Amino acid sequence: MHRIDAVEEGKSMTVLIQNSWVFPPLVLHMISIGEQTGNLDEMLHKIASFYEAEVEHITDRLRTLLEPILILILSVVVGVIVLSVVLPMFDLYDNINF
What we know:
The chain is an all-alpha fold. It has one domain. The protein is 82% helix and 0% strand. The protein is built from 4 helices and no strands. α3 packs antiparallel against α4. The N and C termini lie far apart (94 Å).
């Protein structure tokens, strides 16, 4: 029997998805509570809000970590470009006979 058919027959979603590695225990517990209380849509909304906030927090932390790294990389690139322009000028200056 397919999982969709089992849910349509009234079986618990929690039982059907508890062996899946995709869902953490917190999600399974909240889905179970939502099924028992009849507020599954509200629980799913709370789960979505929680994970949305968590993803936003992680991306903010990642952004704050990446900014200094990108500044360092760009400064190295600009430094290499400046040196590639300035060093030949110094070589030309050294080769001039007064």
